[in-house]
Amino acid sequence: MSEGQRGVEDGFGGSDIDPIELLRVAWARKFRILFVALIATAIGIGWAISQPRVYQADALVQIEKRQGTVSGLQELTGLGNAGGESTNTQIQILTSRRVLGEVVDRLDLTLAARPVPLPVLRDIATLWPGEPPRTPWIDRWIRPYAWSGEAITVARFSMDRDAPYSVRLTRDERPGGYTVRLPDGRVLDGRVGEMLRDAQTGLELTVSELEGEPGRTFAVARATRAAAIAGLRGGLQIQQQPGSEVLRMTYRAGSREEAVRRLDAVAEEFLTQNVARSAAETEQSLAFIEQQLPGALRDLETAQAEINAFRVSEQSIDLNAETQGLLNRVTSLRAELAQLDIREDEISRRYTRNHPVYQTLIANRAAYQEQLQMLEDETGTLPETQQRFFNLNQELEVAREIYLQLLNRQQELELVRAGTVGNVRILDTAQANPFPVAPNRTRAVALAFALGLLLAAGLVLARHLMRSRIDDIADLDDFSLPLYGVIKRLPGRRKVGGRTQPLMLDSARKQHEPVIEAFQSLRTALYFGMMDETPRAVVVSSASPGDGKSFVSANLAALSAKGDSSVCLVDADMRKGYLRRYFKLPRGTKGLSEYLSGQATLEEIVHEISPGLSVIAAGTYPPNPADLLMSARFRELVTLLGDAFDLTIYDAPPILAVTDPTIIRRLVPRMLCVIGHRRTERGMVEAMIRTLDKTGGKIDGLVLNDYQPGRGSGAEGQQYGYYYSSRYRYQASDKSA
Q1: How many domains does the chain have?
Q2: What is the domain extent for residue 31?
Q3: What is the 8-class DSSP label of residue 123?
Q4: Does residue 133 fall inside a structural domain?
Q5: Measuring CA to CA, how many Å separate 350 from each of 73, 334, 384, 604, 621?
Q6: Using one digit for the tens of pLDDT, what is the confidence trace for 23-75?
Q7: Distances from the Cα of 690 to the Cαs of 14, 549, 696, in angstroms?
Q8: CA distance 539 to 709
């Protein structure tokens, strides 16, 4: 295995990513990255300017602990604020459809009417100073869209169909006039302040205000109630202030006035429903008391009548002190039990039987009933007449106590109803910030710039890591082959018929100076590399056509022939060789094919171009060039040229196209391969090395041709670009050294 082959396997067998190299690559492309970042910044500026401005209003609401409205309930249970609700519960109520739906209905938020903004650019026109441009084509394009000062107010809008539905208005030339385009395509004429009706669609439209130049369009739409509630909820945010029962409510809308209007409506509706809910509890208790009062009064009157009748029938009856005390105790216990019955009816409306409040009431009733049973057992020892009077008097006292308690409760509940305020208090009404909260243009521009930098750097690094062509000089290091020279691209070279125009370097032309210097470096490297070789000959080839091997061969031969050296340039491409064009040899010039086929002598095919430089053209293209190259006559030619010239250069066909270069390589001691910058694929170089390795040959060095400083994806190109921009310049001088 050759050294080049091992280098291919080592270079592509699993190379690690070098962060330092990636940083160098990014730095080498800093201006390109910055350019992309600036473009992204411009896009970010355009986006930030075009987005509609959003204003925010805020308000503060306090949630107080709710106090029970049922008198005596807290004393009965001992649980304090058993009926209180958490702040999280109040937040859920505040954002419920019950509250927001009422706001939507009250403000008619299902109706939306606004000027139609510019497509994509949207509100960017609001930043334009003064009137819009008045050129005909610009005016025709922007006339339908909002520019500045447009306004519309719709008092009524409905159609005989389920929402959503919409129409589009266009301001016309009439004073206060407009046209309406219906969904079915018909156009109706309307006027501000007048009802516009259409029997076919059931349209009823009243526009109370319409401001704008003729031609401006306005969109009027009716959304579903659910969509309006969702939109209202989407703009509403509620946060509990840390360490308090205060809620901070914020709302975002397209104008300060709209944000304040909607947030105030939400807070007021929440307060109204909270007060109504508290009053409803009191109303229920009061209705129950008023329902019980007539029956309690009848029981009192009945008990009074019965005891009066008993006294009349018995003439006179007195109770001793002990019996009177027993009567008072029994009466008190029965009154307490009656009071518990009333409270149970009220508590059962709020709690289940298993609730601690309900269980406490049941336990108290059982204790009272046990005491009452003990007292009733004591009354059994009284005489019959006293027992009868005792029972009647007991019923009278209980009926009187119940009736008085119900009257007291009625008065208490009426006072509670009159003073019901709920447990919600609006601390601060809605107030809007004078400056929009969105879009945050500074943040948007900074983010766009950062994203542009990341995107550009990512693309540069990805391109560097995924590159398939020879993009940088550093890419050639993967093949472990010497780099003999780097030939810069010459400005002004054009392709004719798919081929680059033949060009011989001229030292008198300043633009050729850096390329001539590169060829001189190549000649020097080749000279020292071939000092001990016999014959002193080199094959110049490439991976594919168009890489510039003929350009390199011709100019290398011309520069090497200067001085005392004799150089022979052989066009060994008997398939498509055209070296004769570089030296303006006529078509049909005898060359290599005629010599190898025995149709010409060596003297007939060697053409002296200048002192020290001779050229052998390809000759007529034969049908069997490979067979001719494998003949003894070609082997003899290599020997003869090696003896006759100091240097022989063979311009061979591309290695991957035909087998001719491998045949020539076996007879010539050294071989150079020309690599086209940003043209030759990395895989081609690999294949070229493997092809020669199979035949026992190898590539001795590489020449990078058509190099464009600064066009590579890595940092190496920048370094060579600096070299070319700061090269030595030789100037004529009459002063001796």
Answers
A1: 4
A2: 3-9+22-51+439-466
A3: G
A4: yes
A5: 12, 25, 45, 124, 110
A6: 877 887 888 889 999 999 988 888 887 778 889 999 999 988 765 444 443 44
A7: 19, 20, 10
A8: 27
